[in-house]
Amino acid sequence: MDTKEVKSTVSNLEKAVDDKTILKLLNILNDDVKPTEKLLRETKVGVVVNKYRSHANPQVSSLVKKMIRGWRGAVQAEKNNKKKSGMSPSSSANSSTNNNNNNNNNNDSTAKSEAAASSTASAPHRSYTGPRSAQKDGVNTQLYDNDTRNASVAALYNSLAVERDDAPKTIVAVATEIENAVYREEYSKLGESYRNKLRTFIMQLRNKKNPELRQRLLTRELDAGKFIKMSPNEMAPEELKKQIEKLHKQNLFDAQGATEKRAVTDRFTCGKCKHKKVSYYQMQTRSADEPLTTFCTCENCGNRWKFS
């Protein structure tokens, strides 16, 4: 599939509502997409597909996890191959300019580098089962002489690792950047403001219904500096944002529907400026058997009064 076809399929996937259609589109992407770093960046297909990682249908969630693992492994292999191919010209140039001893040393060094790159490319991608944590992953979060900061890094790591297969070094690097950004923002003070901010971020990141936030941070689409400036509403899952927006529009509609329509008449006289151009509306403010209350506003001076 080319970029245009992938974008079209992704668009249809975002609009799909029934499990059958979602599975069909996911299978098309799984079978036909040849993942490259450029394609994934241009189409954002990985971000969209990852939203279905926690889908209620186990077939959907299982397929998505398999796709993400495969694409991530393919992109990593692509990067390793680029690094490997980039070494050859350098080694060749060195061999043509250095003496025999240097050539031998360079060749040995290049051979070791190529062997390491080949080993990394061929190594199977690790798949994590069950809840992850810094302790289970064997990650050292004791980075500072302060227990509060170390505990913050560990908590951020645990939140970022929810339903993720990223390498521990990637997760701990992002967790450290977020903690550092908050620490600098609070002018190196570990007070309530520091703790409250980190609690908010940790709660948002550990939300299983918000995989796209973790995805954006771990793929560096969103950096730590911008992340800590976001409001809770901006961090909320896309589905929740849509629900909030829908509720907001409905509330506006309801409020407008409840607004009384004003009529302008010359039957009333303003007691203040004696003009007869008066707008009014009526409401039932007392019991049902009582007459309506009339609210008047003078269009000339703005004077208001009411009567029953």
Please write out the topology.
Blueprint: H1 3-15, H2 19-32, H3 37-43, H4 45-50, H5 58-97, H6 100-122, H7 147-160, H8 168-185, H9 192-206, H10 211-218, H11 224-227, H12 232-235, H13 238-258, E1 263-265, E2 278-283, E3 293-298, E4 304-307
Antiparallel strand pairs: 1-2, 2-3, 3-4
Provide an overview of this structure.
This is Transcription elongation factor. Residues 1-78 form the TFIIS N-terminal domain. Belongs to the TFS-II family. Residues 86-123 have a biased composition (Low complexity). Necessary for efficient RNA polymerase II transcription elongation past template-encoded arresting sites. This protein has 308 residues and is of the alpha+beta class. The chain has three domains: 3-122, Transcription Elongation Factor S-II, Chain A (Up-down Bundle); 147-241, no CATH class; 263-307, N-terminal domain of TfIIb, CATH 2.20.25. The chain has 13 helices and four strands. The chain has helices at residues 3-15, 19-32, 37-43, 45-50, 58-97, 100-122, 147-160, 168-185, 192-206, 211-218, 224-227, 232-235, 238-258, and strands at 263-265, 278-283, 293-298, 304-307. Strands 1-2-3-4 form a four-stranded antiparallel sheet, with no helix packed on it. A hairpin with a 5-residue loop joins strand 3 (293-298) and strand 4 (304-307). Helix 1 (3-15) runs antiparallel to helix 2. The radius of gyration is 31 Å and the shape is elongated.
